[in-house]
Design goal:
The chain has helices at about 60-70, 85-95, 145-150, 165-180, 215-220, 230-245, 280-295, 300-315; strands spanning about 20-25, 30-35, 40, 50, 50-60, 75-80, 80, 105, 115-120, 125-130, 150-160, 180-185, 210, 250, 260, 265-270. Helix 1 packs across helix 7, helix 5 crosses helix 6 and helix 7 packs antiparallel against helix 8 (about 300-315). It is globular. About 30% of the residues lie in helices and about 25% in strands. The strands form 4 sheets. An 8-stranded mixed beta sheet has the order 6-1-11-12-13-14-15-16, sandwiched between helices. Strands 5-2-9-10 form a 4-stranded mixed beta sheet. Strands 3-4 form a two-stranded antiparallel ribbon. By secondary structure, it is α/β, with parallel strands linked by helices. The chain starts with 20 loop residues before the first strand and ends in a 10-residue tail after the last helix. The chain is built from 8 helices and 16 strands.
Length: about 325
């Protein structure tokens, strides 16, 4: 991989250098109820104890926008929330953290999603999501103001509502590219609706950076794990996205770091050694750190190193978007 600046290539020059928004993050906004260290109470049936139970704001678009704002960038968020306590909390906390909330849609018909996250002693986790995450009735407006003035449009929850309908994703990506923005896509596993890769075959060449994690990459590409050759397994998955025309594919592999594939070749960047407290939001912070490097004009390896640093900070404490 050479030192090519991933922002200012001939294909990706901004139409307007005087952009008023660095990154527009489109995706989910939720309240995370995080339980760490759950164990049964041996003295009482159906009663559990926990080391900690905390509320945090979360969701991919929230985590990315806060991290970017913390790093000194002008970040805006486009999401749908209900006119309820959880929605009010999200909007208040985002504004306090310096995120532009003018593109948030508050709808009485929505219930702001609340996710139940159980964090295990090794820092791994499992989550429970309700049908509120479908955000029925909310679709981001392709003509929103920050779609026209953002340097980067981040599809922070691709394949998860509101980005789980192919026609809507297509309209948003076309609008972003028409405005001259770079396009970043952080993928998710589907919950209630599913888009297949081929349904977006016409717009994948518009995507500058895609960031699936290992499980998401395997799911969406259909490449089974090859226990004999881990690097070849990642190479094959990245090549599927490259085959659709995505310019830069970065697979987040947790403790194994990340794997990058673009026109300059394929490379593995190891993770930093760090004690894992809670892995919630690690991938979102990686993307935010990476995009910070893009905004600074750094080469793709330096961008990935920024992402790695940010993710390492994230997993060293509870929650996805606390101050770092």
């Amino acid at each position: 991989m050479n030192g090519q600046n991933p922002v200012m290539t001939e294909d990706n020059k901004y139409k307007n250098e005087d952009k008023s928004c660095d990154v527009l993050c489109i995706g989910q906004a939720v309240i995370d109820c995080i339980t760490r260290g759950q164990e049964a109470d041996k003295h009482r049936e159906n009663v559990f104890r926990a080391e900690r139970i905390e509320l945090h704001i979360g969701g991919d678009a929230v985590n990315e926008s806060i991290a970017l704002s913390d790093m000194g960038h002008k970040a805006a968020i486009a999401c749908g929330v209900g006119a309820d306590l959880a929605g009010n909390l999200l909007r208040t906390e985002l504004a306090k953290r310096g995120v532009d909330t003018s593109e948030i849609s508050v709808m009485k018909s929505l219930t702001t999603p609340i996710a139940q996250l159980v964090v295990h002693q090794d820092g791994g986790r499992h989550s429970i999501n309700s049908r509120a995450t479908m955000l029925e009735g909310y679709l981001p407006d392709p003509q929103m103001a920050h779609m026209r003035d953002a340097k980067i449009v981040s599809f922070a929850s691709l394949f998860r509502a509101p980005l789980d309908q192919a026609d809507e994703v297509r309209r948003l990506m076309l609008a972003a590219k028409e405005a001259g923005a770079l396009i970043s896509a952080d993928t998710k596993l589907p919950t209630f609706r599913e888009i297949r890769l081929e349904e977006l075959s016409d717009v994948w060449p518009l995507v500058d950076y895609i960031f699936p994690n290992e499980k998401e990459a395997a799911y969406h590409t259909g490449i089974p794990e090859d226990g004999r050759n881990k690097e070849e397994h990642f190479r094959r998955m990245t090549e599927v996205f490259r085959g659709y025309g995505v310019k830069n594919v970065i697979i987040k592999a947790g403790a194994d770091g990340c794997y990058i594939n673009n026109a300059d070749g394929f490379v593995h960047l190891p993770a930093l050694p760090v004690e894992v407290v809670d892995s919630t939001g690690a991938g979102d912070n990686f993307v935010a750190g990476f995009l910070s490097g893009v905004l600074r004009g750094e080469n793709i390896i330096a961008c990935a190193e920024r992402g790695r640093d940010r993710a390492a900070q994230c997993i060293s404490r509870m929650g996805a978007s606390e101050g770092q």
